[in-house]
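Please go through the sequence line and token line underneath and see whether the fold suits the sequence. See right below:
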Amino acid sequence: MDELEQLEKLSLVNKVISELYNHTGLSDKVLAEYILHLHDEANGSVQKFKDSLKDADFSESFIENLDRIINTMKPKKKLAEQSAEEKAEKLPGLALADDPKWLKKRQEDLDVAEDMMAELEQGAVEQRSRNTRDDRNRSRSPSPASRRRRDRSRSRSPSRRHRRHDRSPPPDRRRNEIDDTPVMYKIYDGKVTNNSKDFGAFVQLEGVRGRVEGMVHIKQMASGMIRHPSDVVQRNQRVKVKVMSIAGNRIGLSMKDVDQRTGQDLTPHLRVRSQEEIESMASRNPDRPGAIPPSRRFEDDGPSRAVKRMSSPERWEIKQLIASGVVNPADYPDLDQEDQDFAADMEAEEEIDVEVREEEPPFLSGQTKKTLQLSPVKVVKIPDGTLNRSALAGAALAKERRELRHQQQNEEMDAVAKDVNQPWQDPMPEPGQRQFAQDMRGQAAGAKTEMAEWKRATFNNATSFGKITSLSIQEQRESLPIYKLRDSLVQAIAENQFLVVVGDTGSGKTTQMTQYLAEEGFANRGRIGCTQPRRVAAMSVAKRVAEEVGCRVGQEVGYTIRFEDCTSPETRIKYMTDGMLLRECLIDPAMSNYSVVILDEAHERTISTDVLFGLLKRKWLSA
């Protein structure tokens, strides 16, 4: 058995397993192979196959369905392995017995052919004699040789020639039947009328009354990849097509389902079936859900075609059209029957009981209990917790300070010694003397407003929001907490391949560690790379470190972000986003340009940072 037959056999076994599972709930490969063995022993007899499975408690419709599936999908025998009866069934012309009188019949045909040649020669001689004046009288009488040949031909039975022609079929049988409309899955001869479309070609069918055209899609022309229909067919080319679909005036044709040389149907399972065959197919498995009874599958007054059940929105729309008088109710005689069938189906569906198996599979042991807890996570508030006590104390302190500040402002405004009643009692006051008490308090509050000392020292005309210090760059570096651990950090980095550094914000991890490594000579073997999860952070940190080193950004210290590369061959410390380092790692898995790689802000757990952890670990472990 070659590989193709093995694949067909496995496909058949898998199909039988699926049918068993759908019908009985069993999925057993051994049982499916045993059923195939019983089918082989039956030798094509459905009754023997049923008798062999009578103890299996299978329904007859299911056994007939299995027989149909096995006969359809069973690997076909090769010609050399087939018996004489199978060869005779497939090649009836070559299986005919030899005719013992074939030599005599062939001799008779040869004699008839000889007589016809003799008559042709006689006609040629008579024509030449007419052109000769001297032989005019002699040409009127036949020659002795021709007379002898004519007598010999007349002496033979005159029915031989007619007998040769009688062996051919009558003209009525040779003539193809003409259909009124195209028939589904029937093969027709046709002529290509137009193939200029990119999606297919139009073919005019022969054997159908009138001018009927269908379209052959580019996928239905031949097996394989086709760039344009002109690669397969040309205009006015004779082809053989098979009708695959009929939707109103649109007819779908196929060329790849027909052998273009012999006209053989390459998909015999799609062929023209009689009404008896369709009814027998429908009755094979009546238990199949959704099966339409044969009485409703065909119409009585026309050709057999499937009856399509209308959906609920379609029935409602038709009822509305009938009520408005647009549609005649006589055009839909089965509308009420459809409603009854639909109501019966709905009632049947309501009677179905669904049982849920709550058995826990072994591989999910202890896992399904957590999935059933669909309630949200409950937030438990601890009134005696440290955070809650700190929040309450802070709120109370803020409220107290706010009330004291408002009370102090009110006291300052009320302490203004100004009599506002006198100008109003004077009939001729000075201009601007008459004022309201509220305005006076506002002016007093504005005059008495004083700025705190720390604000006067901090906020001025050239205010820069940040910590103002008078320390030098070196003193600022030495004031950072990480400076005390400089030697121990450098030693730990030199002795270990992987190191995790944890520190508070502002301790100097991002800006100082790269400089410490560069000062100790790590940058002589390659660049020192440091990643940042955001582009702005990479740019700002690079500018700060360049200021501390005493160079311009892009020289000894640079950065790389998307769409911007501010580095040079002199760059020893390089800040970049984690995505840029990931791209470099994909291009150069060995990371040969770097001696130390620092993944900063790793606790944020971005996707690029997590992937970089795995890539760098694999790189250094392999090294």
Q: What stands out?
A: The chain has a mean pLDDT of 76.
